[in-house]
């Protein structure tokens, strides 16, 4: 009952927003509708265009490109983040020496790197992967670093008393602890991988969702821009749902993640 | 009976931040024979856990020696099992995995380790809970898993640091009886640190009293000549128990009052985790 009520309210918000948009753009309340529609399009047009694109085949090529870039940026960024996170967490001197540089690099707005990456890696997918990498890497790096550092000293002492050697400690204690922290930021890092891909495409490419939006924008096709954004939103929600599923499976042992507690 | 653990002239000093030093324990002489159940009692902050950590090899003493079955200890004590006060189970492993993993360093194949772990979990009364993660278990159940995890390796020396401290009174009694039951099957040397004198007497063959810290030492050593097998709840009602309790409490009370008089701030270094 409560869920139904919530759902009704959520749908209501959408209807009201779309309704206002529709009324303002279709009826001449604030001037000529043609001018207003040039700037704002109309919800029906956007929905129509989105539907047309989703039933066509061209958009899936672009979605495929964006998805490839996102996955590559996430996988490579996570792998590097895990590797460096572990190395730095287990080596105090290294961490101390590189600390200011890592902070500086992380503070840099990554968008400014996009033109340089385009120069270095060309206009294909790799310049987008590079941009996504710089975003994902730091999130994973900091979380893995924290995860290794924050291993409970009691759990660690206990594992050592059980006779575990370095390799076994890594497998049974450090690794799962670091992964926990990494998974807790999974939504953020996957989201940023996608941001890197789309922003990179937007700034210079010949394929992908970002490219589609940019293409529509360059010919003042507002309907096309909104339709591209809507498809992007659907895409993001789908990926996020997938991540939630993965997270639920991997973190069953965590309090609050499971309903089998008695 | 051979001597399982021998601490001789043990000094342990901690370096606190800011260049300060804190002498936790000094001049500790303690021998525990194989098959002997020895409890160490003392006021909070007296360095009971420090003593245990030295016997486990988790701490290196500043002076003195630690001998395990006649051999000087260097590094971790591989012949000892340790039961911690705080939760020490790996939260990302089920009860079964937590117990089975204890056999991995000994090179036992996974299938056999699982089989043995099931047996041990059944012995501590958790047959139905093997697939639970630690957060799905109660405090007492988690201690049972930790007990199984320690015992499955069949260590020759058992070290326990206020293991039942966080549990409620009823659970403590049940756990105490379970411990005695398991221990009496193959009597290992056992050092049991606690602040609960009644628990110490009910369980042990010997009770060692430590003085208030800093620079705590051993002030008294009592034999507990109560017959075994014992029931923790019932033995407290016996006359002999009361007499022993009165004797030990006489010396323990002095130390507790000293510690109390020194007030706060001295718990700075008392921490069960090394």
TrEMBL record, chain A:
Upper classification of the organism: Bacteria, Pseudomonadati, Pseudomonadota, Alphaproteobacteria, Hyphomicrobiales
Alphabetical keyword list: Cell membrane, Membrane, Transmembrane, Transmembrane helix, Transport
InterPro entries (UniProt xref): MetI-like (IPR000515), MetI-like_sf (IPR035906)
Signal peptide: none
Domain (ABC transmembrane type-1): residue spans on this chain: 63-243
PANTHER family for the chain: ABC TRANSPORTER PERMEASE PROTEIN HI_0355-RELATED, ALKANE SULFONATE ABC TRANSPORTER-RELATED, MEMBRANE SUBUNIT
Keyword Iron: no
Organism: Bosea caraganae
Protein name (Swiss-Prot/TrEMBL): ABC transporter permease
């Amino acid at each position: 009952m409560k869920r139904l009520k919530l759902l009704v309210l959520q749908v209501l918000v959408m209807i009201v927003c779309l309704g206002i948009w529709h009324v303002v753009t279709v009826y001449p309340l604030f001037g000529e509708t043609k001018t207003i529609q040039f700037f704002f399009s109309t919800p029906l047009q956007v929905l129509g265009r989105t539907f047309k694109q989703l039933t066509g085949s061209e958009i899936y090529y672009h979605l495929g490109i964006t998805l490839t870039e996102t996955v590559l940026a996430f996988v490579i960024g996570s792998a590097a983040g895990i590797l460096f996170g572990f190395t730095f967490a287990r080596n105090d001197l290294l961490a101390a020496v590189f600390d200011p540089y890592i902070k500086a690099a992380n503070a840099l707005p990554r968008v400014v790197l996009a033109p340089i990456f385009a120069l270095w890696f060309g206009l294909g997918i790799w310049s987008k992967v590079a941009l996504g990498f710089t975003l994902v890497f730091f999130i994973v790096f900091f979380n893995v670093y924290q995860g290794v550092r924050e291993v409970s000293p009691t759990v660690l002492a206990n594992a050592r008393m059980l006779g575990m050697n370095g390799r076994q400690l890594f497998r049974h204690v450090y690794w799962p602890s670091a992964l926990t922290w990494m998974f807790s930021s999974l939504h953020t890092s996957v989201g940023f991988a996608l941001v890197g891909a789309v922003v990179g495409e937007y700034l210079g490419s010949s394929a992908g969702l970002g490219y589609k939006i940019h293409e529509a924008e360059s010919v003042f096709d507002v309907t096309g821009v909104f339709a591209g954004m809507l498809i992007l939103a659907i895409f993001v929600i789908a990926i996020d749902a997938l991540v939630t599923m993965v997270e639920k499976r991997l973190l069953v042992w965590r309090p609050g993640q499971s309903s089998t507690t008695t | 009976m051979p001597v399982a653990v021998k601490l001789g002239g043990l000094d342990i000093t901690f370096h606190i931040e800011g260049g300060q030093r804190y002498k936790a324990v000094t001049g500790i002489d303690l021998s525990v024979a194989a098959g002997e159940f020895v409890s160490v009692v003392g006021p909070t902050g007296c360095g009971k856990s420090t003593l245990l950590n030295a016997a486990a090899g988790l701490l290196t003493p500043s002076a003195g020696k630690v001998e395990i079955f006649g051999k000087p200890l260097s590094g971790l004590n591989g012949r000892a099992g340790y039961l911690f006060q705080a939760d020490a189970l790996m939260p990302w492993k089920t009860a079964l995995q937590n117990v089975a993993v204890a056999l991995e360093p000994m090179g036992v194949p996974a299938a056999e380790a699982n089989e043995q772990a099931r047996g041990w979990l059944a012995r501590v009364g958790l047959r139905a809970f093997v697939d639970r993660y630690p957060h799905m278990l109660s405090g007492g159940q988690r201690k049972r898993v930790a007990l199984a995890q320690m015992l499955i390796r069949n260590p020759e020396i058992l070290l326990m640091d206020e293991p039942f401290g966080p549990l409620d009174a009823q659970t403590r009694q049940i756990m105490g009886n379970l411990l005695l039951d398991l221990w009496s099957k193959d009597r290992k040397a056992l050092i049991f640190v606690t602040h609960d004198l009644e628990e110490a007497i009910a369980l042990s063959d010997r009770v060692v009293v430590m003085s208030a810290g800093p620079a705590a030492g051993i002030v008294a050593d009592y034999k507990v000549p109560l017959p075994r097998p014992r029931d923790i709840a019932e033995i407290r009602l016996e006359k002999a128990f009361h007499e022993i309790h009165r004797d030990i409490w006489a010396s323990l009370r002095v130390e507790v009052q000293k510690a109390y008089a020194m007030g706060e701030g001295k718990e700075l270094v008392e921490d069960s985790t090394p």
